[in-house]
Amino acid sequence: MAQPAEQPEPSDDAEQPVIGNTRRIEASVVTDFSDRMSYGGYLDLPTLLSAQRPISRPEHHDELLFIIQHQTTELWLKLVLHELETARDLLRADQLAPALKCIARVKHIQRTLTEQWSVLATLTPTEYGQFRGVLGNASGFQSYQYRAVEFVLGNKNERMLQVFEADPMASAMLEAALKTPSLYDEFLRLLARAGYAVPDEVLERDVTTAWTFVPELVPMFGQIYANPEEHWAAYETCEELVDLEDNFQLWRFRHLKTVERIIGSKTGTGGSSGATFLKRALELTFFPELYAVRTEIPG
């Protein structure tokens, strides 16, 4: 009788199947990090993960959620600023295509930021009320990165600087953003260099002030929208900017509804009227002419 063939011993080969619901570590995987860069070292995880320090006593279970929600928002805002400032600089240098790549990335970040509100919305009024007092006057209103994003997009407000007088770094960042032309300013200057009819008063405006509606720009944008094939680069950029503003307003609206869901009409921790104050933010605009032109488009 023939003897059964011997079965090969299991090996650490990458093709070895999972055994006992355990995946073998490939022999080539690095496991000794005594003198190598590791994942945690590259990301400085000890610093990052030690930054969540609830101060409620006894520590309330849901305070960690509240802290992580806002810390991750600040991390995303840091990247949004990085991309918008780069896009602005690229527009200044007439490099439209890479500027649009930066804007496209910001749009994805905006969607992530908006979706994050659904996590915070799991916090009930009763749960939040049990640790809200430890916040003192801390409020998202005091986010200097959020203000910087608004400034880069053109919604500037010099009076906001007083909120950050006690923080020299934040004050310097916002003052620089206040004095620098916005993303929209640089787009309009690019259009002017390309031969579009941008009024001189727009090109020479005081960039430290909030952008306000300029009706003289609407006919120019009307020409772009009337013949997108001929003005494709400008047309595409206009639509990308509209996407930015749409996404920003969706974020504001979701913020408002989350606040209403958790604290109703209570006053904000920073002293604002809370939900009422947030509703007014929905009236703020970045690129009003790009919305106004839609009324003028035939059809």
Fold and architecture overview:
With 299 residues, the chain is an all-alpha fold. 55% of the residues lie in helices and 0% in strands. It has helices at 39-43, 45-49, 63-92, 96-120, 125-129, 144-152, 168-179, 183-193, 200-203, 217-226, 232-263, 275-281, 288-296. The protein starts with 38 loop residues before the first helix and ends with a helix.
Summarize this structure briefly.
With 299 residues, this protein is mostly helical. The chain has helices at residues 39-43, 45-49, 63-92, 96-120, 125-129, 144-152, 168-179, 183-193, 200-203, 217-226, 232-263, 275-281, 288-296.
Write the layout of secondary structure elements.
Blueprint: H1 39-43, H2 45-49, H3 63-92, H4 96-120, H5 125-129, H6 144-152, H7 168-179, H8 183-193, H9 200-203, H10 217-226, H11 232-263, H12 275-281, H13 288-296
Q: Give the low-confidence spans.
A: none
Report the radius of gyration as a whole number of Å.
26 Å
Which strand-content bin applies to the residues?
under 5%
Structure classification: mainly alpha
* Main sheet attributes: strand count, strand direction, barrel closure: none
Order of helices and strands: HHHHHHHHHHHHH
Query: First CA to last CA: what distance?
Result: 88 Å
Q: Can you count the helices? A: 13
- Shape estimate: globular
Helicity level: 40-55%
Arithmetic mean of pLDDT: 94
Number of strands: 0
